[in-house]
Amino acid sequence: MARWLRLALLVAAKDLKVEVRSKTALLSSLVFAALVLVVFNFARDATLVSSLVLAPSVLWITVAFAAVIALNRAFNLERENASMNGLLLAPIPRRVIYGGKLLANLAFVGVVELVTLPLFVLFFNVDLWGALGGILAVMALATLGFVAVGTIFSAMVVRTRFAELMLPVLLLPFMVPPLIGAVQATSRLLTDRPLSEIAGWLRLLAVYDIVFVAVCVWTFPFLVEE
Amino acid sequence: MSAEPLVARRIVRHGFWVTTVALLAIGGVYVRALMYTPIEVRQGAAQKIFYIHAPAAWAALMAFALVGIVSLLYLWLKDARLDLFAASSAEVGLAFSAVMLTTGPIWGKPVWGTWWTWDARLTLTLMVFLLFVGYLTLRAALSDRSERARFSAVVGILGLVLVPFIHLSVYLFRTLHPTPILLKPSRPSLPPEMLTTLLFGLGATTLLYVGFVTIRYGMARADEARMGEEGSHA
C-alpha cells in the first residue's frame, strides 16, 4: 500500500512538474475563475439581491467551471508525443497511474479553489472568517468526488476530437450531487447555522467520495487496456 | 463472407413485428383510456396523459438500468454484442425519456399550474435524459470500436451509480410529484379501471421498447458486419 502511494506520488509529481514549468493551464484556469466572478457581479442587481443570498451559488459555480477547465489538462498532457504509451509501459499497476493523475488533479483544482476563495471574499464582500474551517472542509469533500470522476472522463475525452466540449457534457451531471451538498452546506455555514444542520450534507458528500473513488479506481484499467 | 448479415436482417425483421404489435397495443391503451376509463375527479381530462407519461417514464428508466447492467457485463465478458445492445438501449431510452419529458409538462401545467418544477423525480428523469445524451455523444465521438465499447461501458456504469445520489440529494427539496401509487407498501390506491389501463400501458410500452431495441440492435449488427467486411478487404 505504501509502495503504491509512493508510485502514485511519483506520477503526480511528474504532472505537477510539467505544469509548474509551463504554467499555461494553471494560469488560464485562475484567470478564468476570476473572470467568472467578475461576470457574476454584473449578472445581479445589487440593490435587489444581497450578496449573501447569492454567495454560495456564485462560489460553487465558479469552482465547478474552473475545475472543468482544469481537468481537461490531465490527459491532454499525455497526448503529445504519445507519452501515454510511455506511462503505460512503466512497470507500475494501471490503478496507480489513475491514483497519480487523481492526486495531481486534486492539487491542481485545490490551488484554483484556494485562489478563488480570497477573490470571492474580495469581490462579494462576504465575511468568511468565522466559517473558514468549515468551508475548507466542505470544499475538500466536494472536490474529491467530482475530481475522481473528472479524471476518468478526461482520460476518455482526449481520445475524441472535441475533448474540451465533451468533458463538461459528461461531467456536469456528475457534479450535481456534490454541488447541491456544497451549496447547501456553505449557505448554512455563512449564516452561522448549527453544525447539526449540515451533518447530513457532509455525510452525503463523504459517501459520494468513497463510492466514486472506488468505482473509478476499479474501472480505470479498462480504459487503457490495449 | 459470413452468415452475419442474414442474422442481422432476421433480428431486424423480428423487431419490426414486435414493434407493430406494440404500436397496435398502444393504440388499444388509448382507446381504453379515453372510452372505458373514468375521468379523474380533480384533474379532469388532463389526467389521461398519465397513461402514456408513466409508461414512457418506466421504459426510459428500464432502458437506463439495462445500459448500466449490460455495461457491467460487457467489462466482465467483453462480448461485442453486449456493447451493441447497450448502445441500442441508450438510443431507445433517449426517445422514451424525450416522450416522458414532453408529456410531463403538458400534464403539469393544468394540474400543478406550472410547466416545470425542480422536484426530486423531475430532476432525476431530466438527469437520466442528459446522461443518455452524454453517453451517446461520447459514442459518436469515438471511432475505434474497442475503445468506444470500453469507454461507454464505464460511462454506463458510472451513470447507474450516480442516479441514487442525484435522487438522494434532490429529495431534500419539497416534492410536488404525486407520491407512488403503485409500488407503495399498502394496496394500490388507483381505482381498478385506471390501474388496469395503466398496467396495460406499461405492458404495451415494454413491448415497444423490446421492438425498438431489437430493430436498433439488428441494425447495429448489420453495420458491424459491413465494417468487418470492409476491414477484411482493405
Sheet/helix structural class of chain B: mainly alpha
- Which range best describes the helical content of chain A: under 10%, 10-25%, 25-40%, 40-55%, 55-70% or over 70%? over 70%
The helix/strand class of chain A is mainly alpha
Q: Helical region count of chain B?
A: 6
Can you tell me the residue ranges of chain A where pLDDT is under 50 for at least 5 consecutive residues?
Answer: none
| Dominant shape of chain B | globular
Give the SSE order of chain A as H and E letters.
HHHHHHHHH
Strand content of chain A: under 5%
End-to-end distance of chain A, in Å? 26 Å
End-to-end Cα distance of chain B: 14 Å
User: Strand-and-helix sequence of chain B, N→C?
Assistant: HHHHHH
How many beta-strand elements of chain B?
0
Taking the sheet with the most strands of chain A, its summary is: none
Structural features, described:
- The complex is a heterodimer of chains A (about 230) and B (about 230).
- Chain A is an all-alpha fold.
- Chain A is built from nine helices and no strands.
- In chain A, helix 7 packs antiparallel against helix 8 and helix 7 runs parallel beside helix 9.
- The longest helix of chain A has about 30 residues.
- Chain A is globular.
- The mean pLDDT of chain A is about 90.
- Chain B is globular.
- The interface between A and B is medium-sized, with 31 and 28 residues.
